[in-house]
Write a structure and sequence with these properties.
By secondary structure, the chain is α+β, with helices and mostly antiparallel strands. It has 2 domains: about 170 residues, Gcn5-related N-acetyltransferase (GNAT) (Aminopeptidase); about 170 residues, Aminopeptidase.
């Protein structure tokens, strides 16, 4: 077996396309998006067998909030979409070798690495645990798009259906997809306000511009905007790959909440997904079990199946991670006092 940090694009694409758990975050296109985003540094790790065939794939994105002296305290790695490996003995051996090689390097670069799973990883759990990755539950909703738009509407909660139909009838909210970078910036402006209100860091606008420029021409991303009286009242960024539409980012201006722009926007996205031939809508996460998470209540309205694919975390620098968390909590409290 050989551990490599580059792959021919054709071999890379073929492995992801053929693997049942391969998703958009494993693609070369998404790698290029992260590579173009400020504060993001993706890397590729793969295991090849004796014939040069890919057996396992890991695509960590190193994310840094602040450069300079604080870099060591603000750098983490996120493996969006999780790791890809075959469940047979050869695949498990390849995955183990890959994770061992990666963690030896990562402990000098990031505080921790988090695997964000988008499918069931039970067959890989023993190998992941042996390599120092600890499992924690994390919920998500998956909406069935394989039927008609009417089928999707029927599965939506009764009260939410009423809100959607009323909004459609009144016509106060208009929904469209962004066609220009200027509209992408309008989307980002609302995301900034939404994340600031929640006191959660948001990726730099360069991530979204790169997604528009790299994924847009390939039909792998769509930016949605809901307007009320000419103002952006809700927004959503959707990724598409294989038969799945992925909710990536979303924002809402609560001053327009009485017009239900978020619910109407979500309905337009789901209806469009059915019309485009997608079979599943992935809501992109719904928080930890047994912990309050306001966005979960919104996502639960749309009739999806609640799943718990969880996440895995490997802590590389426990002491520095403790300092980092303490600093982050202090910063959030300080910002709250100044509001």
């Amino acid at each position: 077996m050989e551990i490599v940090n580059t792959l021919p694009e054709t071999a890379w694409k073929d492995f992801v396309l053929r693997h049942p758990a391969g998703n958009i975050f494993h693609t070369p296109e998404m790698f290029a998006v992260f590579a173009a985003a400020k504060g993001h540094r993706p890397s590729l790790w793969a295991t090849l067998d004796g014939d040069g065939v890919v057996q396992a794939l890991l695509l960590p994105v190193q994310i840094t909030l602040w450069e300079g002296p604080l870099r060591r305290l603000t750098s983490r790695a996120v493996v969006y979409g999780g790791v890809l490996g075959n469940p047979d003995p050869a695949g498990q051996a390849a995955l183990k070798a890959l994770l061992e090689a990666y963690t030896r390097r990562a402990r000098r670069q990031v505080l921790f690495t988090e695997l964000r799973n988008l499918s069931d990883t039970a067959p890989l759990q023993a190998t992941l645990s042996a390599c120092g990755f600890v499992y924690e539950g994390h919920l998500n909703y998956l909406v069935d798009l394989s039927g008609s738009p009417d089928d999707v509407m029927r599965n939506i909660g009764r009260r939410t259906r009423k809100h959607i139909r009323r909004a459609l009838r009144k016509g106060v909210v208009t929904v469209k997809q962004a066609a220009t970078l200027r509209e992408v910036s309008a989307c980002y402006a609302l995301l900034q306000r939404t994340y600031a209100a929640a006191r959660v860091p948001l990726a730099d606008e360069s991530l979204f511009r790169a997604a528009f420029e790299v994924l847009g021409p390939r039909g792998m991303v769509s930016f949605w905007l809901a307007y009320v009286d000419g103002e952006v009242a809700a927004t959503s960024v959707e990724l598409g790959y294989k038969d799945t539409l992925y909710g990536w980012y979303g924002g809402l201006d609560r001053t327009h909440a009485r017009h239900n722009p978020g619910e109407l926007l979500m309905w337009h996205v789901l209806k469009w997904g059915v019309e485009q031939g997608y079979r599943v809508y992935d809501f992109g996460g719904a928080g930890k079990p047994h912990e309050e998470y306001g966005v979960r209540e919104f996502k639960a309205k749309f009739g999806g199946e609640l799943v718990n694919f969880g996440r895995y975390t490997c802590t590389h620098q426990p002491f520095l991670l403790g300092l980092s968390r303490l600093g982050y909590q202090t910063l959030r409290r300080t910002k709250s006092l100044w509001k």
